[in-house]
Design brief:
Elements lengths: L3 E4 L2 E4 L4 E7 L7 E9 L2 E9 L6 E3 L7 E6 L4 E6 L8 E9 L7 E2 L3 E6 L1
Length: 119
């Protein structure tokens, strides 16, 4: 079992920045691929960014490429999402999630943190 707790959300003006954090409870955190998700029109949620266990590979949604950066610190059992040049359409509840190596489904989820971008 992995418990995930997000923090860092808030209200920011368009063009501003926020840094989200996700703290994991398990010492084997370093073996999990981590992702940040948000709700999307027409589907339950979209993958905003993901990062492999080593941090060597990251994937981004087209809508955030060049603006968001995902990173992780396995020594601190944490994953981060640096969000720059925020837009009103980035407003959402952002959730972090974990999936085991070799698995395709994100099994563990946090409660989410609200990000609101004002125009």
């Amino acid at each position: 079992q992995v418990q995930l707790v997000e923090s860092g959300g808030g209200l920011v003006q368009a063009g501003g920045s926020l840094r989200l954090s996700c703290a994991a409870s398990r010492r084997t955190f370093g073996s999990y691929t981590m992702g940040w998700f948000r709700p999307a029109p027409g589907k339950e949620r979209e993958l905003v960014a993901s990062i492999t266990w080593s941090g060597g590979s990251a994937v981004y949604a087209d809508s955030v490429k060049g603006r968001f950066t995902i990173s992780r610190d396995n020594a601190k059992n944490a994953v981060y999402l640096q969000m720059n040049s925020l837009k009103p359409e980035d407003t959402a509840v952002y959730s972090c999630a974990a999936r085991g190596t070799g698995e395709t489904v994100y099994k563990y989820w946090g409660q989410g943190t609200q990000v609101t971008v004002s125009s």
